Every structure is written in structure tokens, then in C-alpha cells.
Amino acid sequence: MSVTLKEVRDVLKQPLVARLGTVDAEGYPHITPLWFLLEDDRDEVVIMADRTARKVQNLVAHPRGAVQVGGDPLPDGQGGHTPGVMLQGDFAVEDDPAHAVTARITRHYLPAAADQLLETWKNDDIVVLRLKIRKVIRVSG
Predict the structure, then answer these.
(1) How far apart are CA 52 and CA 127, in angstroms?
(2) I need a surface site. Which of 15, 79, 115, 132 has the fewest CB within 10 A?
(3) 41 has pLDDT over 80
(4) Per-residue pLDDT for 141 more than 60?
């Protein structure tokens, strides 16, 4: 069911592992778990990735994709699913000068370990995958 971004913003603000769906060079789906961050001021999602990663190559070739957040089964046989949302849209691959976006995402997920991780990644060629959201679909919850 299509909904507005405002209706699912609470789910997207949580540090949940998302799944990115892209299309590979042979036309097959490529699904990758990852961290993300909703940029409220732009109604966009940002993702960090190594420039050489398959997901980056896929999005350079085919810039449309989807991100699913939540919608996972509840634990211990409780039945049902967590609230979930799928975001579809167009991606841009951007440089991340000084790893500014990478730092924001890392601090969102692992605030206590962020500085250590960022130090480890300081020489990595990290890019930002920016999703311009075109469609919001509630997948469960």
C-alpha cells in the first residue's frame, strides 16, 4: 500500500538494517544488507559504500533501486511482523569528502564505536549512495 514518507518516518529514524535492491549487469536482482540514514531536510536516504562494491557498480549502470527497512518477522513465534517500508527511487553516487556522511551514519548505528571505525576507514574510498525517493510502500505493520 502506497503511503507518504511522513507516515513512515518513525520507522526510518530507527537504526535498523536495511536491504538495498539493485539490478546487476545480467539483469538479476542484487540484495545487500546495509546501514542508512534518512535526511529529513531533503526527504532522501543516504547509504555509505566502498566505491568498488557491486552495489555501487550496479547503481552507476542502472540508477533505479529500492530500500526496504523493517518488515521482519517478530521473534519467538509471536506471529506478525515489525513495521516496514519500501522506498523506491533514483540513486546518485556521490563522493563523501572527509567521510562526513559516513560519520553521520556510523554515529547513528554505533555511537560508542564510531570514532574507532572512522579511524579504521579514514583512507578508504567511500562514496554516498543518495536515494531520491519516488514511491513509499508500507510492507507490513
Answers:
(1) 9
(2) 79
(3) yes
(4) no
